[in-house]
């Protein structure tokens, strides 16, 4: 039952339960497009092999799940993720979501 990891030294793993939690919250709030972008971002973070990318991604998912996500935390984490993962910039749904929260 559950994921089992063996012989993975030096690997970077995104916590799937954190992704699912944030995806569910976004879907419940009517942000299905953002949920898809978040899943794609998680894949980018994991494929990058960059521990910093995974840490930032997990911080973003944790903040999204809050009853009242802090826009400043979301924005700074998103900007840091774009710096670490240049391919993340094309996931405009996340940026649009953060900007919508700010208004």
* Number of separate domains: 1
Radius of gyration: 13 Å
Q: What structural class do you assign from the helix and strand content?
A: mainly alpha
Ends distance:
43 Å
Estimate the global geometry from the Cα principal axes.
Answer: globular
Helix-strand pattern = HHHHH
Number of strands: 0
Name the helicity range: 55-70%
Oligomer: single chain
Q: Main sheet?
A: none
% residues in beta strands: under 5%
Number of helices: 5
pLDDT < 50 stretches: 1-12
Calculate the mean pLDDT score and round it: 85
Characteristics of this structure?
about 100 residues, mainly alpha, about 65% helix
Can you characterise this structure?
- The protein has helices spanning 16-28, 32-48, 51-64, 71-84, 92-102.
- It has 103 residues and is mainly α.
- The chain has one domain.
- The longest helix has 17 residues, at 32-48.
- The radius of gyration is 13 Å and the shape is globular.
- The N and C termini lie far apart (43 Å).
Describe how the helices and strands are arranged.
Layout: H1 16-28, H2 32-48, H3 51-64, H4 71-84, H5 92-102
Can you give me a brief rundown of this structure?
This protein has 103 residues and is mainly alpha-helical. 67% of the residues lie in helices and 0% in strands. It has one domain (16-102).
